[in-house]
TrEMBL record:
InterPro entries: Glc/Gal-6P_isomerase, Glucosamine6P_isomerase, NagB/RpiA_transferase-like. It comes from Ornithinimicrobium pekingense. Keywords: Allosteric enzyme, Carbohydrate metabolism, Hydrolase. The record marks 146, 153, 155-156 as: Part of the allosteric site. This is Glucosamine-6-phosphate deaminase. The gene is nagB. It is an enzyme of class 3 (hydrolase). The active site is at residues 67, 138, 143. It catalyses: alpha-D-glucosamine 6-phosphate + H2O = beta-D-fructose 6-phosphate + NH4(+). Its EC number is 3.5.99.6. Residues 10-225 form the Glucosamine/galactosamine-6-phosphate isomerase domain. Transmembrane segments: none annotated. Belongs to the glucosamine/galactosamine-6-phosphate isomerase family. NagB subfamily.
Amino acid sequence: MEVVILEGAEQVGRVGADAVAQHVARDPRAVLGLATGSSPLHVYRELGARVARDELSLAGCRAFLLDEYVGLPADHPETYRNVIHRDLVEHVDLDPAAVRGPDGCAADLPGECASYEQAIADAGGVDVQLLGIGATGHIAFNEPGSSLASRTRVKTLTRRTRLDNARFFGGDVDAVPTHCLTQGVATILDARHLVLVALGAAKAEAVHQMVEGPVSALWPASALQLHPHVTVLLDDAAASRLQLADYYRETWSAKPDWQDL
């Protein structure tokens, strides 16, 4: 796990965009894993700026979303398909038809989960997966207690997660769906490169447990310790609980210019 502590959100966005761009440079048809939420927004803005400057093209890429609410109609502004369209797809040259998420309105939800797993496999797997982390250590909607061997499935959202997401629904927690479809922990770990972004002091304990704590279902993100290629991008506040913060800073400052993320 490569832990990179940076000065602020803009720098985190640039380094996160570097990681994506490196994969696309090697393979213009790279498969991207996209996360919603506030954590990856600076990465998406930087990707949009690079596409606008003709420094990068995502036109040949395909993308898969981590999760989706159950029951929100397709035209609801807070479906994750619509959120990723606003946050990224509108600002880059990625074909909207090449972006797929699980269908939270499918008549057969378990069947949809199995179909989504197969679609990722048929695409050759995800080359680079962007991730955020919740204050409880969840990745995607894998809440504490999730099996570390889990695959795409239906999950019940905790009260804490629904309260956290109520800001996207006008502050009304009752408007937040109670269930979702989410890639499992094992599905996420199948991606070849994981890039996790965490910003702010509210994420500091979860980051500490993910990086330096034991691998445990109590902190699902700790399973990333088992992956061979993880890049963790943090600002100072999110890194404030790390016991080895000085070591991580030293390692990053000594990184050769020719070495990819």
